[in-house]
Specification:
The protein is of the alpha+beta class and 336 residues long. It contains 13 helices and eight strands. The chain has a six-stranded antiparallel beta sheet. A two-stranded antiparallel ribbon has the order 1-2. A hairpin with a 4-residue loop joins strand 1 and strand 2. Helix 6 crosses helix 7, helix 7 crosses helix 8 and helix 7 packs across helix 9. The chain is elongated and about 60 Å long. It starts with a helix and ends in a 9-residue tail after the last helix.
Length: 336
């Protein structure tokens, strides 16, 4: 670890050549990686849904053609962050954030235990899928994309979708449809190569300039903090320099784009680490991949921003950040 830091530090002292060569070389090799997430049966990205809920989301996400497991996962994440105890000021409850009137009409006994419990994910997740499919059936004859019409019905009501013959011209509804359809890309398991990020090199350049800066828990790099960062503060600041606003914490940053495989990593990808490799909500660390098996990160109290290896036992996965993906992420979570 110390030898790697000394070598990397020497390269940094010589200017930007070290990282520039990694970025340029890797992107030249990846010039043909332009196909994004492919079509076909939709699976869930590794760890994107907590292990306890993954079978439910995979099963019920295939309930009807208007939904898929990644879309259902995106809705649950948007509504509650997969928190079964969540409640909102609008009096919506549970992992799927049903209000009591809607639950009374559309809640189902998903686990067959004889009751419909709004707080039980075994009932609430099947109910969310069932309600989506019911809405889709209401607007099945409306022109346009069936999934977008279903989502618009969820937000504005089926009557509005029927009246306007598609997604109605309401800003809130249009944003909701865009948010969920964008966010689902973060939960879908890619079946092809993921598009390279256009902002990656500038984000790396920013992080490289911070090499040697002492770590600060909760650090955002502000003047009153002495320009210091923690891990997610550094990645957030790096991408803000290219106009991409990431959430503050690492486990939310994981959902800012699609997830390339380890052997498909490109410079600028965010790389994540966790003690629970089956649950993205348990992610505790993030860095910026620079190529060659290394990242720039702010590792821990008492350390400095530095180069560290990516291939450790707690490596969770990676995200290729997109502006749309970052914008789709919720800015606030329901109360507990």
């Amino acid at each position: 670890m110390r030898k790697a830091w000394i070598v990397a530090g020497s390269a940094a002292a010589g200017g930007t050549a070290f990282v520039t060569l990694l970025v340029v070389g890797t992107y030249m090799a990846a010039g043909s990686l332009v196909n994004g997430v492919g079509k076909g049966a939709v699976g869930l990205a590794k760890g994107s849904v907590p292990t306890a809920y993954q079978p439910l989301v995979q099963k019920w996400g295939n309930l009807c053609p208007a939904i898929n497991p990644a879309l259902l996962a995106a809705q649950l994440y948007q509504e509650s962050g997969f928190n079964p105890k969540a409640k909102s000021p609008a009096k919506a409850y549970g992992i799927a954030q049903f209000i009591l009137g809607t639950w009374a009409a559309h809640g189902v006994d998903g686990d067959g235990d004889g009751d419909k419990d709004i707080w039980d994910p075994n009932d609430a997740i099947p109910s969310a899928a069932s309600y989506d499919c019911k809405l889709a059936s209401y607007v099945k004859d409306v022109p346009g994309d069936a999934t977008k019409n279903m989502l618009a019905s969820y937000n504005a009501g089926a009557y509005a979708v029927i009246k306007y013959k598609g997604v109605p011209p309401y800003r809130e509804t249009q944003n909701y449809v865009k948010t969920i359809t964008t966010l689902q890309k973060s939960f879908a398991r890619p079946v092809g190569r993921v598009d390279p990020s256009r902002q990656a090199a500038a984000a790396i350049s920013y992080a490289q300039k911070k090499l040697g800066t002492p770590y600060l828990w909760g650090g955002n790099g502000t003047a009153d903090q002495g320009g210091r960062f923690d891990c997610s503060g550094l990645t957030k600041a790096a991408y803000e320099t290219v106009g991409v606003r990431l959430p503050r914490v690492a486990n939310d940053q994981y959902n800012a784009g699609a997830h390339p495989k380890r052997d498909e990593l490109l410079p600028g990808d965010l790389v994540f680490f966790s003690d629970d490799l089956g649950n993205s909500r348990a992610i505790r660390h993030v860095g910026i991949y620079v190529g060659g098996g290394y990242m720039i990160d702010a590792p821990r109290p008492g350390a400095v921003i530095r180069f560290d290896p990516v291939d450790t036992p707690d490596y969770f996965g990676a995200t290729r950040v997109t502006e749309d993906g970052a914008q789709a992420l919720p800015t606030a979570s329901p109360e507990v």
